[in-house]
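Is L45E5XJ5 placement plausible here? Inputs below.
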Amino acid sequence: SPSFSSVIHVFTRDDMCNTSVRMRDPQRVEETLRCMQKAGLNTLQVISDFDMTLTRFARNGKRCPTSHNILEISKMISSECKEKLKDLLDKYYPIEIDSSKTIEEKLPLMVEWWTRAHALIMQQKIRKDQLTLAVQESDAMLREGYQEFFDCLNQHSVPLLIFSAGLGDVLEEVVRQAGVFHPNVKVISNFMDFDETGVMTSFKGELIHIYNKREGALLNTGHFEELRSRPNVLLLGDSLGDLTMADGVQEVEKVLKIGFLNDKVDERLPSYLNSYDIVLLKDETMEVPNAILDFLVAD
Ligand SMILES: Nc1ccn([C@@H]2O[C@H](COP(=O)(O)O)[C@@H](O)[C@H]2O)c(=O)n1
Ligand SMILES: [Mg+2]
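Reply from A.M.:
I modeled the complex. Tokens:
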């Protein structure tokens, strides 16, 4: 059964190009993992962001789509609307990853991006039954090793909450088409409302954007209440906004935060190291989360 040294081996491997694992405090990571292992898998829950955390950021140098992008570049969207959505992406994505701006400075601009994009999407008479094809025709890609990750959690009945500011209907389809939408998976995200003919009319509930996952978590107290007996959390994200995803967990004991740092790595590394326990630099795989699960399984 895997020992901590085998996890460390994955953490410190230097044989793989473009892959690197950083930790602010490796000893604390080890202590946290040992506590989690001792407490057992029946005390664990996993909370993960979706876009660019469970999905790949890039492949062969080309960006992979977010759940928004999958819809935005699909046949369902008119070319005029596509152009407007692309302009929004070009304007706001650089702000999202700008390390010279604070979260407080970025927040209103991110709300503006989501609000404007969703207003455009709502005008497009999206058909629910066309989402399957949009995902099939996209380059959406879960990270290498996703099957092992999803299957392991399911096999051990560990709940996986996918908490996304993306498009819930689209991301669920990505997970379904990958064959890993197991019964232990729950999704909190922006879901569409459809009329009786299957045409989208609006979005359900409160908007989830990159910086209000804490509020989103607190709106879902029922989910976390059900998981009261699971105070240990493995959190996976790619944005500093993802760090609050576990804020709804009741009587939390240990939280291990794993951050995928995909873009503008040098500028953003200090803030990621400050806030995530483990930072994965340009790592397109689930190798580290899987090594951690292997370690936790072996109690
Ligand atoms: N119109 C938009 C708005 C946001 N995005 C990207 O979605 C990501 C958020 O989804 P998570 O699953 O990561 O919560 C965010 O990082 C934005 O870059 C987009 O592509 N289009
Ligand atoms: Mg993300």
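Short version: Residues 49, 51-53, 238-239 surround magnesium ion (ligand 2) (CB under 6 Å).
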